Amino acid sequence: MLFRKKCLIIALIFFLDLSVYGQSYRGFQDEFNDIFRKARITLGPFRFYPLVQIRNIGYDTNTQFGDNATPDYTGTLSAEANVYLPFRNSLILSFQDSPEYNYYLRQRDRRIFTNSYAFSVKYLLFSRIVMFGRYHWDSHWRRFSSELGWQSRDMARGYDFGLFYETARKTYFGLTGTWNHQGYADIKTADGIIPLSASLTRFERSGYFEFYYQIFHDSFLFTKVGTTDYQFENPEAIGRDAHSFQVYTGIRFPLLGVVQGTLSLGYKKFIPRAADKKGFSGLVGDTSLDIRLGRIGIRLGYGRDTVFSYFSDISYVDNGYSAGLVFHLTQFLRLDCGFGYTKTEYPQPFVVDDGLGATRTILRRDRQFSFAPGFVIRIFRQNGIGVSWGSAQWTSTMPGIHRTRKSLNVFLTSQF
């Protein structure tokens, strides 16, 4: 009894400052049962779900995807520790920690260790009302933007929180909110420093109304309506401040089944606070689907959204398409082939030198295409080791941008 009271006090303290994890709400009982299904390592009342990933072990002809190719041997080792404390079908406390090490043989200054962690709580009250909260610190070394070829460190610190009502027939509706500080590290290049921190570091505050309706087993029709405020930290970047209104609707498919993932499309209106900046209104989407038909697997992805830009006045529109084909040749051998296409559109014109001592105005449009065939050999259960060969090309209406990249990578996967 005393232990339960202590857990309740901890949950209430967390709820004051933390928030819900993820972009898609899951019912309390579904999440509770999932912990017992996945986290089978136990220590007293605690349950653990560890994960180790090895990827990008190989050779890359252009690690920074820049005009001047920088070949190198690379490797990434990451781990994930998930610790859960479920209690009497009414409380879930959890902690996630994700350390990662990125290795470069020649570019020693790019060898970097990052770590991300999060604390979260989810409490069921009167069998219908769910309160949840989460604090997170995320730090990654990656190419976080399609307009930048360089890898850099981006950091996010924030809180999420929410209040939902769940019906007996698995219909959920409620309110969620987020407060996030999005930061970036400057990039060192041969030509000098690229001051990403001064241009892009910002505060983001969001609020949403969310509705989920179960249409068949573990699949939900959902709608999310909300607004976001963007405030930049550097006073010199105050002209980038903006706010947006967005609505999404779609279908979330189950974690296990013939079709997995989320089909999501919506509308967004992005409004800069400065009158001389161009905004955006139109279709947005975030779709990722895995379809399994016997030995054949199909992967489809689509993403469209506004992204804050380093090169332009405020933002650009990013359109991403992906497709993949998986064929299980035998019980122990899988063949993979993936395609990717990204189209980047800037709303305002750029003034460039025409090479003859004069200038001209162009609309910048970037195109990036990637192709990656490979195979995976199953080692045990659903774990396997894979090899992939990648080829990518980057072209633009901006003069001088025509980049190529090839890579050969070895990786481990837990999804054969």
Rg computed from alpha carbons, rounded to a whole number of angstroms: 23 Å
The tally of strands reads 23
Calculate the mean pLDDT score and round it.
90
Reported for the largest beta sheet, the result is: 18 strands, antiparallel, barrel
- Taking pLDDT < 50 over at least 5 consecutive residues as the criterion, the unreliable ranges are 1-22
Shape: globular
Helical stretch tally:
3
Name the helix and strand elements from N-terminus to C-terminus, one letter apiece. HHEEEEEEEEEEHEEEEEEEEEEEEE
Termini separation: 44 Å
Features:
416 residues; 18-stranded antiparallel barrel; mainly beta; single chain; two-stranded antiparallel sheet; 8% helix; globular
Task: Compile the SSE list and pairings.
Elements: H1 2-17, H2 28-38, E1 41-43, E2 46-60, E3 72-87, E4 91-104, E5 112-125, E6 129-142, E7 152-166, E8 171-184, E9 187-189, E10 192-194, H3 196-200, E11 202-216, E12 219-232, E13 242-252, E14 259-272, E15 280-293, E16 296-308, E17 315-328, E18 333-345, E19 350-353, E20 359-362, E21 365-380, E22 383-396, E23 402-413
Antiparallel strand pairs: 1-2, 2-3, 2-23, 3-4, 4-5, 5-6, 6-7, 7-8, 8-11, 9-10, 11-12, 12-13, 13-14, 14-15, 15-16, 16-17, 17-18, 18-21, 19-20, 21-22, 22-23
Would you mind describing this structure in some detail?
Helices cover 8% and strands 65% of the residues. It is built from three helices and 23 strands. It has helices at 2-17, 28-38, 196-200; strands at 41-43, 46-60, 72-87, 91-104, 112-125, 129-142, 152-166, 171-184, 187-189, 192-194, 202-216, 219-232, 242-252, 259-272, 280-293, 296-308, 315-328, 333-345, 350-353, 359-362, 365-380, 383-396, 402-413. The protein starts with a helix and ends with a strand.
